[in-house]
Amino acid sequence: MSSIIKTQPESIADKSTHYCPGCGHGVMLRLIGEVVDELGIREDMILTAPVGCSVILYDYMNCDVIECAHGRAPAVGTAIKRVHPDKFVLVYQGDGDLAAIGTAEIIHAANRGENLSVIFVNNAVYGMTGGQMAPTTLIGQKTTTSPYGRTAKGMGKPIRVCEMMATLEETKYLERTSIHSIRNINKTKAAIKKAFLNQINGIGFSLVEVLSMCPVGWRLSPQEAQGYIESQMIDYFPLGVYKDLEY
Amino acid sequence: MPETIDKKSSSVGKKVLLKGNEAVAEAAIKAGCDAYFAYPITPQTETAEYFSKRMVDLNRIFIQAESEVAAINMVFGASAAGARVMTSSSSPGISLKQEGISYIAGAELPCVLINVVRGGPGLGNILPSQADYFQTTRGGGHGDYRCITLVPNSIQECYDMTMAAFDLADYYRMPVFILSDGIIGQMVEPFVMHEYSPMFANMPKKDWALTGCKGREPNVVRTLYMSPADGLEQLNRRLFAKYEKIEAEYRDCQQISCDGADLIIIAYGATSRIAKAAIKKLNKNGKKVGLFRPKTVWPWPGPELVELVKNNKKAKFLVIEMSMGQMIEDVKLSLMDVVKKDWIYFYGMGGGWCPTPETICEKVNEVLG
Q1: Which sequence spans correspond to the domains of chain A?
Q2: Which of A5, B128, B173, B217 is most buried, judging by how many CB atoms fall within 10 Å of its CB?
Q3: Which residues of A touch B223 (CB under 8 A)?
Q4: What is the per-residue pLDDT for B2?
Q5: Confidence category of residue A3, pLDDT binned at 50, 70, 90
Q6: Chain A CA closest to residue B216
Q7: What pLDDT is attached to residue B369?
Q8: What is the band of A161 on the pLDDT scale with cuts at 50, 70, 90?
Q9: Torsion B312-B318-B320-B326 (CA) sign
Q10: Do B224 and A55 touch (CB under 8 A)?
Q11: Total H helices, total E strands in chain B
């Protein structure tokens, strides 16, 4: 008789999360926990949590955490890393956080070449407030604040963060991945690990943009949401490495 | 760019000449400020310039941030990481920082903030003003909180109060403001640059700081309490118990010639210096005029004001501010039961400029008849 063995990374608290069924944040939490354990950095780590659905990360991660104001995690992380250059500082942000209200903070942290690892979860909506239009909402996508679908005219086109950040010369590693399938989840884990190792090895600013599901915000089933990434999001947000400078 | 920095650092205990904006920076450095986060704005920019050289020379942290918002959030991060930390700005910039200050107050983190107040509202102008009194004494950002606010009226006090501000911030775990203004910040006068010595014998350990959780349970710095039962009620009650304690322990004011005075001028900061000059003239001419000068505006030295009235029941009051009248509300609240309402007079200006000793004398003569 086979049995399911529960394996919980040490860096993740033994709690159930508040994430909705099919939400990508749970997958991200697990991946980060596994990488933190594999690198053995839990006790040297300080996590800056954003505003958004992942605001309660301090309850889920078993490490030092600071909960930041909306969009400000890169500024907060900058200061923590400067005070403790020997510690590992993880900046976790969503799309509204990073690409709308916190655009200045992420761009300037990157431009200064802060030795930070940024995980950018792009699910194309403001999840926590109930599915409003985000800077990464696709053209035509209906949200509670774009009920007729997003149009380029008057709302602009979705911001491609990796492509934009690649123009900043002090960024060292930029990759866009997805977590809509097992293969892509594994690729995402490898990217996270690389971003973490870059900081540990003093290489500099690394950002992994992860296309992630928000079934409730998208008004889709968890399975349909995975399909939406495959058929819609990847077209506009191509996966791949946008920069990789290992020096 | 400050030129004589090296001389200054070796001039401990001697009289030196510095601008108010430079004196606060040097005091912070001597008090062990580990990190300073800058954004240029007139009339406080000399502070940022001063730090930009000294902090690099000392191998400490200096970042010119992309905005006031980023600067205060860097303060938030550095403070949470256990550093002694400061930022400075002037009125419009302080407005931008209020979001972060609210988080810092809510998370009970220490930091020192300098507001070199200029004329407002909006861009106003770059001249001296005291129109940020409400903002600084009532918290300033969203939510229920207070910031200790020290008010220097000389460069010596800029220096001394900045050192004290770091200790008060660490001791009470909260933001502490130095409320300067366009005159105090830009003014140059001699002062004694003494060595830093902590004002409390036992400074609390920063065992809450984020340093990585090796050998202990994880530390969490947060301001989110989703349900009332989860702790927001307790947080606010704890904060206000602390504020009550500070109100009892750390009010400060100066009283000059108040005994037997027919009129007492209430003024703080640059205005109190000008009032002092006016009072000298008035006293020479036989007018009995005194000065009540708050050195802290939060906590407000109301009990001292009431005590003063107990000893001098005949005095009228003239509140002078470089604003349309903000501190006067605290004066009226303190004196409402002990002084006739029409015995409290106001002289203020809202243009970002200051009264002169002559105009103050005129106003006093008008009141005294």
Answers
A1: 24-244
A2: B128
A3: 67
A4: 41
A5: confident
A6: A43
A7: 86
A8: very high
A9: positive
A10: yes
A11: 13, 15
Amino acid at A52: G
Sign, CA torsion B291/B295/B300/B306: negative
pLDDT reported for residue B10: 56
- Contact (CB, 8 A) for A44 and A77: no
Q: Nearest-CA neighbor of B342 among B361, B323, B316?
A: B316
Contact with chain A for residue B105, Cβ under 8 A: no
Instruction: Using the predicted structure, report yes or no on whether residue B178 has a pLDDT greater than 90.
Output: yes
Min Cα distance B193 → chain A (Å) is 28
Give chain B's domains with CATH numbers: 5-192 (3.40.50.970), 254-368 (3.40.50.920)
Residues with Cβ within 8 Å of A43's Cβ and at least 6 positions away in sequence, in order, are: A63, B212, B213, B214, B215
Average pLDDT over chain B, rounded to an integer: 95
CA distance A143 to chain B (A): 25
Position A1 scores a pLDDT of 55
Phi, psi of A38 (to 5 degrees): -60, -35
* Cα separations in angstroms, B185 against A98, B111, B175, B240: 36, 20, 20, 32
B224 and A67: CB-CB below 8 Å? yes
The shortest C-alpha distance from A211 to chain B (Å) reads: 27
Q: Residue B5: which pLDDT band, with cuts at 50, 70 and 90?
A: very low
- State whether A69 and B103 contact (CB < 8 Å): yes
Give the closest-approach CA distance of B123 to chain A in angstroms: 22
Nearest to B290 by CA among B316, B329, B328: B316
Name which CATH class applies to A24-244. Answer: alpha beta
Question: Over 90: is that where the pLDDT of B143 sits?
Answer: yes
More confident call, B353 vs B317: B317
Element (H, E) at B297: strand B296-298
Mean pLDDT of B216-237: 91
- Asked if B220 and A58 come within 8 Å (Cβ–Cβ), the reply is yes
| Pairwise CB contact (< 8 Å): A66 & B220 | yes
The answer to whether the Cβ–Cβ distance between B103 and A43 falls below 8 Å is: no
Mean pLDDT along residues B246-266: 97
The 10 Å Cβ neighbour count of residue A151 is: 12
Q: Would the pLDDT of A151 be above 80?
A: yes
Query: Kind of pairing, strands B316-321 and B263-266?
Result: parallel
